[in-house]
Inverse folding.
């Protein structure tokens, strides 16, 4: 599966265009930011600074129009006091409505997105691939039943299903202690990361079908191959055959699909937290929904910054996914949707 | 780099030739380098004859065919040469046009505009390909596609050349309309009827029903007949058949070849028959060109080639045929592989020298093409036209091996 | 098999899936934390009300009886009663359907109209500025969360330039059509409709413009390299015929498949877009129901969404069968 030819292909594709490089750069950037968040972030993202609310990002100023009715020369007039608020270097991306640093929030938001993305995809793979392999490898009846199940699962748009499930099961979270804070290296930062576990489970459940389909396809085509028949004739057990023959061949499309899915799940998670269905408020989607309230008064950065972060992450993952797909197998359609 | 072909006493056109190709070169500009697929190629196609072009894969025979009707796709391009086509009307039209080369009744097609050249596809030239199943659009009926060919000709002959581009158009809007309202399409009812007629002419039973079927419902042989029918829609002067029977069963091959011959005789068409199969050549052709590494290495009448092959490559090809009458204990294959045609690797020598059992020192220079024994058409690009093979001057076998180990292994 | 038989076969399969959908939604009722009664009744209901509700819903019956009752109700068009809002769920749900459909259709139409020509142009003028622009745009488009795009659009067009409306629906598309013949002025109605629907449609549709452009481009490039295209050119067919009637037609076939698969994304996207723009459709109903713990309304919405999805997929399958005869005649 990771043969020398594949590695050579990867290098060749990487060199041939600018896009894979940009993608890899972005992805590595996101990973570093997410993993080392306590060290990278300038402030604690949850600390509120009520005297520093709604600061604009560097290079911009905020104008506050304070309109009030006042007595001027015995008459009532509306007076508008215009105050200009400047950006501060210590809050480069500005602050939100509660005075929390946007840059730190964006950095910590990467943690949430990445955690949910990776864990969710892993869950989808762990559920989907075995089901798909069994469906493809066993006989007609098992295949039929499992595929009907898949059809029903797909009958719901994933966002709707996710929303419904979270609505029903609640927003449970798991606290993961932050190793950097525990080691005393990052003082003042949140001591633990809140992982919205229900979201992870839901997101994984909603997406298992794509992996099942791919695995099933591979199992189906490989079942007919001569060497599988030969292995069976020699008495090898089915599980062994699946493990040694079917699985390695299926890895390629699964890997490509996996990258696409991580991107899709990041988008899904941000949508869920935008709607308020996540267990954690330290999330890009949540900040965007907060920011929407401030847009009408001209404070655009609260909503914009997290969105740019999402875009960059997803673009990076998509570019890497394209690179992998072109190198590993140009025949795969990488559009396993949301 | 250009090579002297040394064809003696050939005017740009021979009066009786339907098509005269002179010094045609087609190159492919790829990442690995420039590939000289066709190298200064010259040949004539006469009226009412079947000209065979024979060679292994990689000899450039298919690219030659595509070059003739301007179907070479990037990164390839016809880089040099003249293609003189005899058409009195066309010659008259462009006689006073300085940008177009005209010689009596012949026009050099490489000097006319793209549009005019494309307009010749159908009424002047047409082509059939090796694999009929991939040469038809799988989502349209066979009848529809043949009718398209008919319709193209109908519209072309109905409008003068200058306005052709406008009336031939078929835009995106048209596509939407067609998909939603299938009855108002590009093809007209007379074209469809003519398509059925053509299917009948190529020997397809129940042509009306079969015209409504899709390509995947046809057998290989039937579909090849359909492709021939499509090629005949414009009543071309020249039909180019690129390996028409290679993908078919042996029994079907015979049927298709017979069909081709019948059509050729009935219509007095000329045919360029491209194949690697000498049996097909023997059966069908009047004259033959043998190609190797993008060049014609030997040409002549059918008799010349089979009875008096002069070039060692031709001899090798013939020696590779199993002969029922005279069975040898072992076949005589030609050692080695066809060259890769990369410009930087091709030297100025006889390209066959590295595989030639009769290679001599003098073969390290480019051999000129000279007349050989036999008919006046017989010529070969080999020094053996004039002299015998002398073992004393033979190239040592190791001469090319050293070059091979020095060269790069391609992946 | 013919197209008709394909239609029937797919429809029967679809019925099976719809039944599965209904059953799953039924089962969800029992998966809620806490008892079902707590799930259904408003939080401040008294004990007597709860008992009354329990009796009414038949919650004291065995499960299979409840299930049969549930199915029977559905067949009669009764999706239950929302105790939170005090309305019949059926009425609530179907009142909202037109808005969502309108938004989804608008986004899809915009997407198709923009993206297919762009994709074709991109493929036929490979590596030109148009191509690069289209490729970059596509990459951005599929990577942008549509709710964020919506907020950005609001920021730009409604706050900076006060051109469009940012919430609500205004007039319906039906009203626009009727104003062609009716008393209201057509242009004014049309403009008002546009002012409300434009931003949501763009927010929802952008992802699909990007996706379809990408697919069309790569599909066209694939097709244009195939043998039958060369053969078509060899017979003298004009380039535009080759491009559209042959290559594009075959390109659209897999594109339609992907679109069918992406319907889920469309509906999910619609839910979110509705939330951003306060568009009164099924999506906002779903979210509202969850926040208000109005499970009957949620169930009803889910059933309608699931069923609609299955039906549209069947239609897409049939269209696919019409376009690609290999599916039908193999």
């Amino acid at each position: 599966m990771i043969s020398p030819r594949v590695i050579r292909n990867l290098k060749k594709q990487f060199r041939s265009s600018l896009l894979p490089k940009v993608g890899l750069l972005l992805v590595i950037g996101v990973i570093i930011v997410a993993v080392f968040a306590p060290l990278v972030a300038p402030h604690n993202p949850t600390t509120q600074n009520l005297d520093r609310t709604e600061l604009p990002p560097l290079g911009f100023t905020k104008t506050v129009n304070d309109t009030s009715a006042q007595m001027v020369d015995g008459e009532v007039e509306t007076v508008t006091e215009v105050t200009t608020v400047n950006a501060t270097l210590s809050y480069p991306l500005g602050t939100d409505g509660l005075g929390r640093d946007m840059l730190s929030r964006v950095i910590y938001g990467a943690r949430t997105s990445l955690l949910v993305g990776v864990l969710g995809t892993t869950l989808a793979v762990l559920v989907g691939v075995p089901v798909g392999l069994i469906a493809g490898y066993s006989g007609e009846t098992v295949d039929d039943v499992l595929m009907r199940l898949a059809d029903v699962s797909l009958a719901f748009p994933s966002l709707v299903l996710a929303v419904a499930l979270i609505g029903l099961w609640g927003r449970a979270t798991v606290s993961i202690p932050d190793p950097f804070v525990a080691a005393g290296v990052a003082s003042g930062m949140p001591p633990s990361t809140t992982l919205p576990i229900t979201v992870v489970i839901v997101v994984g459940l909603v997406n298992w079908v794509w992996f099942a389909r791919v695995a099933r396809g591979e199992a189906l085509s490989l079942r007919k191959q001569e060497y599988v028949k030969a292995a069976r004739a020699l008495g090898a057990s089915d599980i062994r055959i699946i493990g040694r023959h079917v699985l390695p061949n299926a890895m390629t499309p699964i890997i490509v699909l996996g990258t696409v899915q991580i991107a899709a799940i990041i988008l899904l998670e941000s949508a869920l937290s935008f709607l308020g269905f996540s267990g954690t408020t330290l999330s890009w989607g949540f900040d965007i929904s907060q920011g929407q309230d401030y847009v009408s008064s001209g404070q655009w950065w609260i909503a914009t910054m997290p969105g740019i972060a999402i875009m960059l992450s997803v673009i990076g993952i998509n570019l890497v996914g394209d690179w992998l797909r072109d190198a590993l197998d140009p025949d795969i359609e990488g559009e396993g949707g949301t | 780099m250009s090579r002297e072909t040394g064809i003696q006493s050939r005017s740009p056109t021979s009066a009786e030739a339907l098509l005269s190709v002179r010094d045609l070169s087609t190159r492919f500009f790829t990442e690995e380098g420039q590939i000289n697929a066709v190298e200064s190629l010259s040949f004539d196609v006469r009226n009412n004859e079947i000209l065979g072009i024979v060679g292994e894969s990689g000899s450039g025979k298919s690219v030659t065919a595509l070059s003739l009707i301007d179907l070479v796709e990037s990164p390839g391009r016809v880089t040099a040469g003249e293609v003189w086509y005899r058409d009195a009307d066309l010659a008259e039209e462009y006689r006073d046009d300085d940008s177009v080369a005209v010689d009596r009744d012949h026009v050099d097609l490489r000097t006319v505009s793209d549009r005019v050249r494309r307009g010749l596809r159908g009424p002047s030239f047409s082509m059939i390909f090796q694999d009929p199943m991939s040469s038809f659009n799988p989502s349209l009926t066979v009848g529809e596609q043949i009718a398209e060919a008919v319709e193209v000709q109908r519209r072309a002959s109905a409008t003068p050349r200058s306005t052709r581009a406008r009336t031939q158009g078929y835009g995106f809007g048209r596509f939407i309309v067609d998909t939603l309202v299938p009855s108002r399409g590009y093809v007209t009812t007379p074209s469809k009827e003519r398509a059925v007629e053509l299917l009948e002419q190529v020997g397809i039973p129940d042509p009306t029903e079969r015209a409504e079927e899709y390509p995947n419902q046809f057998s290989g042989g039937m579909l090849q007949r359909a492709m021939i029918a499509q090629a005949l829609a414009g009543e071309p002067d020249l039909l180019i058949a690129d390996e028409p029977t290679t993908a078919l069963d042996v029994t079907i091959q015979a049927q298709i070849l017979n069909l081709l011959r019948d059509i050729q005789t009935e219509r007095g068409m000329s045919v360029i028959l491209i194949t690697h199969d000498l049996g097909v050549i023997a059966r069908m052709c009047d004259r033959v060109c043998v190609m190797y590494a993008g060049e014609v290495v030997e040409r002549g009448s059918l008799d010349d080639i089979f009875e008096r092959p002069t070039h060692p490559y031709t001899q090798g090809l013939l020696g590779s045929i199993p002969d029922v009458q005279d069975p040898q204990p072992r076949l005589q294959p030609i050692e080695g592989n066809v060259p890769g045609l990369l410009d930087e690797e091709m030297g100025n020598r006889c390209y066959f020298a590295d595989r030639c059992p009769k290679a001599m020192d003098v073969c390290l220079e480019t051999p000129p093409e000279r007349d050989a024994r036999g008919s006046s058409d017989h010529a070969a690009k080999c020094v053996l036209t004039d002299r015998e093979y002398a073992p004393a001057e033979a190239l040592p076998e190791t001469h090319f091996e050293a070059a091979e180990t020095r060269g790069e292994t391609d992946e | 098999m013919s197209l008709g038989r394909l239609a029937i076969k797919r429809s029967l399969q679809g019925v099976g899936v719809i039944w599965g959908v209904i059953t799953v939604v039924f089962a969800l009722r029992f998966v809620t934390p806490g008892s079902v009664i707590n799930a259904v009744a408003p939080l401040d209901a008294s004990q007597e009300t709860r008992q009354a509700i329990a009796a009414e819903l038949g919650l004291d019956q065995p499960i299979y009886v409840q299930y049969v009752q549930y199915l029977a109700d559905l067949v009669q068009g009764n999706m239950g009663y929302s105790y939170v809002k005090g309305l019949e769920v059926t009425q609530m749900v179907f009142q909202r359907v037109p808005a969502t459909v309108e938004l989804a259709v608008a986004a899809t139409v915009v997407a198709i109209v923009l993206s297919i020509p762009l994709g074709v142009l991109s493929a036929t003028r490979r590596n030109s500025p148009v191509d690069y622009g289209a490729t970059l745009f596509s990459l951005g488009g599929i990577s942008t969360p549509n709710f964020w795009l919506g907020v950005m659009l609001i920021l730009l067009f409604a706050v900076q330039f006060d051109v469009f409306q940012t919430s609500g629906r205004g007039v319906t598309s039906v009203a626009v059509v009727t104003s062609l013949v009716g008393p209201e002025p057509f242009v004014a109605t049309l403009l008002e409709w546009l002012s409300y629907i434009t931003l949501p449609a763009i927010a929802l549709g952008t992802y699909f413009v990007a996706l379809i452009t990408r697919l069309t481009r790569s599909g066209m490039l694939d097709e244009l390299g195939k043998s039958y295209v060369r053969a078509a050119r060899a017979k003298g067919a004009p380039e535009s015929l080759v491009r559209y009637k042959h290559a594009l037609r075959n390109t659209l076939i897999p594109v339609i498949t992907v679109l069918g698969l992406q319907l889920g994304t469309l509906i999910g996207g619609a839910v979110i877009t509705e939330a951003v723009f306060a568009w009164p459709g099924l999506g906002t109903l779903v979210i509202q129901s969850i926040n208000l713990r109005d499970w009957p309304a949620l169930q009803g919405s889910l059933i309608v969404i699931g069923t609609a999805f299955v039906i549209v997929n069947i239609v897409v399958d049939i269209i696919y069968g019409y376009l690609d005869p290999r599916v039908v005649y193999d």
Observations:
- Chain C touches chain A through 52 residues (CB under 8 Å).
- The mean pLDDT of chain C is 81.
